[in-house]
Amino acid sequence: MEKENIDKLFNNLQGSFDFEEPTQGHQERFLEKLNAANGVVGIPQKKRKSIWKPLSIAAAVTLLIALGIGQFSSQPTIEEQVAEISPEVSNSQFYFASLIEEQVKQLENESGPETKQIVDDTMVQLKKLEGDYQQLEKDLLNGGNSKFILSAMITNFQTRIDLLQEVLNQIETIKNFKNYNDENYTI
């Protein structure tokens, strides 16, 4: 019989139950009221302030300042500075660099067991010439005799192109010689 009364009670109360979470700090307020009713004096607790929010704001501001300083104080590259001094050099450099890059790719494609040494030596020489060119750019920026330095820069490019062309011709000669020997060799 008790079970029927309990079931009846729940059926009557259905839909009126409160499933919501209590608000933040509810437990502390309840304990304070309970302690006050029983005459117990509690030790007041200090509210802790979160330090993360001010720290995250400070970090964001610092990051923005660092990015701003980096953006506004960045030095132009050597190529940009040379282009300011002489736009013709920039145009010539683009032309010669693309021509040299094309010939280097061709040279690398021609590399084989017979030509590996000559290709490696050529690449070393090209690196030296590139280093010389970078030094010429620095000299131009430091205010050297600009006509003399510009002439030396163009000569540097022409030297690299001539070197690559000569090596490609030598590789072609080596291949032709090998093919000629292979054709004359009889079994």
Verbal overview:
This protein is mainly α. Helices cover 76% and strands 0% of the residues. The radius of gyration is 41 Å and the shape is elongated. The N and C termini lie far apart (116 Å).
Gist of the model:
By secondary structure, this protein is mainly alpha-helical.
Our Rg estimate from Cα atoms comes to 41 Å
Biggest β-sheet description:
none
The residue-averaged pLDDT reads: 79
| Helical residue percent band | over 70%
Uncertain runs are none
Strand content: under 5%
Shape, principal axes of CA atoms: elongated
- SSE run: HHHHHHH
- Structural class category: mainly alpha
Q: State the end-to-end CA separation.
A: 116 Å
What is the topology?
Layout: H1 2-13, H2 26-38, H3 52-72, H4 78-85, H5 87-110, H6 116-141, H7 146-184
Structural descriptors:
7 helices, 187 residues, mainly alpha
